[in-house]
Specification:
CATH architecture of the largest domain: Sandwich
Number of strands: 23
Number of domains: 2
Distance between the termini: 35 Å
Oligomer: single chain
Largest sheet: 6 strands, antiparallel
Shape: globular
CATH class of the largest domain: Mainly Beta
Helix content: under 10%
Structural class: mainly beta
CATH topology of the largest domain: Jelly Rolls
Strand content: over 45%
Low-confidence stretches: 1-35
């Protein structure tokens, strides 16, 4: 079993990979923790001309990614991307976009305004960890989220780029950052990391994503990929290429204590777990 330690004190980046600060004995050491990625939440200051039309986002949207392409958008071109249309006016469209290779439950919502704004999001009731797409996990890094894939799909259709895209969480407007900590094992056995959340940080959400390739053997019975925190099972997967996600309580990932997050599989096949934290530093 290999173990790595990661603390969610963070450097700053809008989209990308960063180091993690490991905290022990009252000292901070700048240690790069494999699989740890940190992002900013940046409040979208919509143009005054459309602010009255975006109040519904505050009511229904949770984690999101957005961009202003700096040019007008032809809504007839944008409309071709949608799987379903939820609302359509002369100024904007709201609907769902399907993601290649993923089930309908993973469809993203998308708001497009003729003045150049694109917002791709999941609903408030859905865990932030839902944005993790394990097909974009490579070399210890998550290179894209489902929201980014949806944004790129819309941008491609209208001939735009997503340069300058930022993340925001409408459900937690005071959250300034979020972190993904990943553990992956491509064979059988157990891998783990340790995480400690400082009590002076305000944590708005603790969530997880679990991927595994399990199966049922007629001789040995079910063989699982298992996700645990401090030896307590959070999730088990007995299907092939299955991804599950959910939220954790403050008790399961309490502050000022090192918690061990582990992934275990009976099989020599990939199994991965991610912890996602939305928070604000003091």
């Amino acid at each position: 079993m290999k173990t790595k330690a990661g603390l969610f004190l963070v450097a700053i980046l809008v989209i990308g990979i960063v180091g993690v600060y490991f905290f022990a004995g009252g000292k901070r050491n700048n240690i790069v923790a494999e699989g740890s990625q940190t992002y900013l939440f940046a409040n979208p200051v919509f143009a005054q001309s459309i602010s009255s039309e975006t109040t519904f986002l505050e009511e229904e949207a949770g984690v999101s990614i957005y961009v202003n392409i700096g040019a007008s958008i032809d809504l007839s071109e944008a409309k071709t991307v949608y799987k379903t249309i939820e609302k359509e006016t002369a100024d904007y469209i709201v609907g769902s976009i399907s993601l290649t290779g993923l089930p309908e439950a993973d469809d993203v919502h998308c708001f497009v305004h003729k003045d150049g704004w694109i917002v791709v999001y999941y609903l408030k009731a859905e865990a932030i960890s839902k944005i993790i797409d394990w097909s974009y996990y490579s070399g210890g890094k998550l290179t894209k989220t489902k929201l980014l894939v949806g944004l790129e799909k819309m941008a491609l259709a209208i001939g735009a780029t997503v340069t300058g895209a930022k993340y925001y969480n409408f459900q937690y407007p005071y959250a300034s950052k979020w972190m993904i900590i990943i553990e992956s094992n491509e064979t059988s056995g157990t891998d783990s990391f340790n995480v400690k959340i400082p009590s002076e940080f305000t944590v708005y959400e603790r969530s997880w994503s679990h991927y595994g390739s399990g199966y049922y053997d007629s001789w040995y019975g079910a063989r699982y990929a298992v996700f645990q925190i401090d030896g307590n099972q959070i999730d088990a997967i007995d299907g092939t290429g299955v991804t599950k996600y959910g939220q954790l309580t403050a008790t399961q990932l309490s502050p000022d204590v090192f918690h061990t997050v582990s992934t275990y599989s009976y099989l020599s096949s990939p199994h991965r777990v991610a912890i996602v934290l939305a928070y604000r530093e003091p």
